[in-house]
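Pilot study result, target chain (381 residues):
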Amino acid sequence: MLVQSSYIQRCASISYTLIKYIMIALPMCVLVYNSNALAFSSLPDFFSCNFILLGLGLNNRPQPTSADNKPTLIGQSEDISILREMIKRVAPSLAPVFIAGASGTGKELVARMIRDQGPRRDKPFVAVNCGAIPNELMESEFFGHVKGAFTSAHSDKPGLFRAASGGTLFLDEIAELPIAMQVKLLRAIQEKAVKPIGSDKEVKVDVRLLSASHQPLSELVTEGLFREDLFYRIHVIDIYVPTLAQHPEDIPALAQHILTKLTPMVPHLTPKLTDAALAALREYSFPGNVRELENILERALTLSEDGIIKDTDLELQTIKPLQQAPYVTHTTSPLTEHLFAREYEIVLDALHRHQWNRTQTAKALGISPRALRYRMKKLGL
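Predicted structure:
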């Protein structure tokens, strides 16, 4: 009896340990997908299915929130006041909304505010960056598939449209969709139904569609890179999100809000900007907009003493010209180092000239957007 009791205790202990590791592993899988859609796509369909059913978005960046923990716009400038009023007007409707604006301005934040102020505030909000999904996986990600539809389809997968059914689907960087996928997306919007891969039946879906892009869709339509019929389907109402350079008077409030969010980085200290640092921020052009402001303040707070951020901590002068490329080690040859630095300067200069619009930058450099993304990653940009 003692032997049997000991055996049962060991089994119970092993079972507890396995359950504990599973509970740890599942959130990690979700985190991987939040930060990188490509990494998650190789995981088993079981996890993918559960991820989509949870209705989580692809962007894991914290959004500005109000006291009641709802997404909100920071600032009282005329541009932000107009944007806030526009969101209030379009939120009650279920009409498709297209959100235009440069990278880093907060287009997903605007999408979340539209959802939170509308009739579907308590329903799923599914956000997807269209440029982050490989072409060969797009149809499966959007419309789902049935078990056995292809080699790695080990179980049914609902897809993003069905995950968002009853709620809101936000398609960020919609201009990145290839023409073939635009045709299928148009049909799904028109018919309000999707056909999973491997199925001969359509499934009805009910989503409020929000989309966004930093690229001018009307110009892409003229160039034949974006379908005109899809343009009119998603462009019923359009909202423009201003660049940070267009409302510099909001920089102090934004900076304070960001520093408050970063407070856990410096326990027992109250982050603060000196007058000189605040003046330097107001004079800076911010080609990367609010996202760049977040990165600058996070780095400056890390380098600061006692949480007091001086203008020298911001390193704006080194950010602006960026004459020297990072990540060049002393082990590289002089020629390799020179070529690396020269490539860095050329790519960075092109990015600044086109306000960090990657599509226009790639076009100016004579390379594809995918090649530009690879070079930016290699160069640390």
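One observation from the pilot: The chain is about 50% helix and 10% strand. A full batch analysis is planned for the follow-on phase.
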